C-alpha cells in the first residue's frame, strides 16, 4: 500500500479508533516509512498541544449580551419573513382584485391570463424584496447622509 492509502488511518490511529488489523498494518508501514512516521509525530505533538489549551469561560454579562443579540437577530429575521409574506399576500390579493375582470374574461386566452398573473405576482415579490433591502441598507449605509436625494 502507498502512503496515500495510510494517511487517513493516521488520525484514527492517534485517536485509538482503528481496528486491530488496521492498526497492525499501519504500524508495519510506519516502521519503513519516514514520511508517515514524521506526520504521525507532528500530529501527536499537535494533539498534545491542543489538549493543554484551556477554555476561558466568558463573564456572565458577556454571555447574556451574546444571547440577547442572537435572540434579537432571530426575532428580526422571523419578523421580516412574516412581514414579507403578509405584504406579498395582501399586494397579490389587491392586484388579483384589480385584474379580476381580465382573469374572468372568456375572450382572453388562458396563456395570457397566466402570464398576467405571473407578471403581477413577480412584480409584487420583487417590490417587497426591494423595499425590505432598501430599509435594511438604509440603516447601515454610511454614505446616505453624505448624498442629498
UniProtKB/TrEMBL annotation:
Keyword Transmembrane part of the UniProt annotation: yes
InterPro entries referenced in this protein's UniProt entry, alphabetically: Anti_sigma_zinc_sf, Znf_put
Residue intervals of the Putative zinc-finger domain: 3-36
Pfam family name, one: zf-HC2
Membrane-spanning parts: 77-96, 108-131
Chain segments annotated as coiled-coil in the UniProt record: 19-46
Keywords: Coiled coil, Membrane, Transmembrane, Transmembrane helix
Name the UniProt record assigns to this protein: Putative zinc-finger domain-containing protein
Organism encoding this protein: marine sediment metagenome
Amino acid at each position: 500500500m502507498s502512503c496515500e492509502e495510510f494517511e487517513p488511518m493516521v488520525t484514527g490511529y492517534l485517536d485509538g479508533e482503528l481496528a486491530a488489523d488496521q492498526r497492525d498494518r499501519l504500524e508495519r508501514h510506519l516502521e519503513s516509512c519516514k514520511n508517515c512516521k514524521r506526520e504521525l509525530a507532528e500530529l501527536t505533538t499537535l494533539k498534545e498541544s491542543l489538549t493543554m489549551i484551556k477554555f476561558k469561560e466568558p463573564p456572565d454579562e458577556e454571555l447574556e449580551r451574546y444571547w440577547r443579540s442572537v435572540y434579537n437577530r432571530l426575532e428580526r429575521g422571523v419578523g421580516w419573513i412574516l412581514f414579507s409574506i403578509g405584504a406579498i399576500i395582501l399586494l397579490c390579493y389587491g392586484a388579483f382584485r384589480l385584474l379580476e375582470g381580465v382573469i374572468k374574461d372568456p375572450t382572453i386566452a388562458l396563456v395570457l391570463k397566466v402570464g398576467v398573473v405571473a407578471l403581477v405576482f413577480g412584480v409584487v415579490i420583487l417590490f417587497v424584496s426591494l423595499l425590505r433591502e432598501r430599509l435594511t441598507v438604509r440603516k447601515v449605509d454610511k454614505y446616505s447622509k453624505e448624498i442629498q436625494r
